[in-house]
Amino acid sequence: MNRALLNAVEAADSIGLTGHIHPDGDCVGSCLALYRYIKRVYPEKTVRVHLELPPENLRVAPSFDEIETEFVKPERPYDLFVVLDCSSAERFEPAKELVEDATNVFVIDHHMTNTHFANDGVILPNASSTCEVLFDLIDEDEIDNEIATWLYLGIIHDTGVFKYPACTEHTMNIAGKLLSKGVVAQRIIDDSFYRKTYEQNRLIGDAVTRSVLMLDGKMIYSVVTLDDLAKFGAQRKDTEGLIDQLRLTKGIEVAVFARQDDVDTYKISMRAIDKVNVAAICAEFGGGGHMFAAGCTVKGDLADAITQIAAMVMLQL
Ligand code: 5GP
Ligand code: MN
Question: What are phi and psi of 46, to 5 degrees?
């Protein structure tokens, strides 16, 4: 076991935790697993999790309610800030001042595009998830049912429920150990991953219906505008899962999904089967991620951006 994280925690009296903007399963899972762990093993320390409000489907254990969604500065700066599942400083923008004020910053991550923004931490680009990295940094004997539940959540979300190539024998061994802590796998998988609201299902169905094939059927693309969201009474985060449906289209190599976040601002998600490095493409637009799952935000003309993306995909096919 690597004690780097626990050494940093033990040297601190007050600890802040954060992850990336628009928190996903791995972000929430890793932040709350570490939060619960510190509360359990070091009850004398002050620990707080600062995150934007995550989607409701990630509420799989009680400490979800202890997330602080206001990024208010504490009376005294934190001795230690642990930043989880976050590849660059822009990705934890709301907590930036709190992190900058902290005496020490420790990063735990698995993004190959991590910019190494702190001097201490563990970044393993081959790991399936930040939760997998975190498991190897804490004492297994101290993992209770809730900590296990949060770690399991992160692993299933970042592996697409144990199927992406980054899901290794080690990942599965960890998942097995988490089951031995009493994790109820079906409940977590169905509630947090597969279950959709009626509005979400309708929105996703509509976006799939409107999707277009490009590059001789090698690329599929769809978009959800602010008007579409309004039409189905849906919210931004209701588009989650849509890219996975597009990705399952037979014959494609790349799936691209654009969600309009503002009049001229679009969040792009990209997925590749196994030939195209979409992290490299998203990096051209100031984003990043993993080889086969990446994202970026584009401002301005969407059609222009999609044309550029298609050209970059074509070069890699
Ligand atoms: P998603 O498409 O699900 O939003 O993101 C897929 C992957 O790409 C995730 O691992 C996420 O962290 C990363 N990602 C998404 N958007 C961005 C972005 O704007 N910048 C960076 N650096 N990574 C992103
Ligand atoms: Mn992750």
Answer: -90, 130
Tens of pLDDT, residue by residue over 173-226, are 999 999 999 999 999 999 999 999 899 999 999 999 999 999 999 999 999 999
pTM: 0.82
**pLDDT tens figures, 78-129:** 999 999 999 999 999 999 999 999 999 999 999 988 999 998 999 999 999 9
Sign of CA dihedral 255, 131, 154, 11: negative
What CA–CA distances, in Å, run from 138 to 7, 53, 177?
Answer: 11, 26, 13
- Choosing among 3.40.50.620, 3.10.20.880, 2.40.37.10, 3.90.1640.10, the CATH entry for 3-194 is 3.90.1640.10
Taking the centre of ligand 2 as the mean of its atom positions, its distance from the CA of residue 237, in whole angstroms, is 17
What is the topology classification, in CATH, of domain 198-316? Diaminopimelate Epimerase; Chain A, domain 1 (3.10.310)
Cβ of 293 less than 6 Å from ligand 1? yes
For residues 130 and 30, give the distance between their C-alpha atoms in angstroms, rounded to a whole number: 6
Dist CA 249 CA 244 (whole Å): 9
Cα(96) to centroid of ligand 1, in Å? Answer: 18
**Ligand 1 pocket residue status of 290, Cβ below 6 Å:** yes
Nearest CA residue ID for atom 6, ligand 1:
294
**Ligand 1 in reach of 83 Cβ (< 6 A):** no
Cα of 24 vs centre of ligand 2, distance in Å, is 8
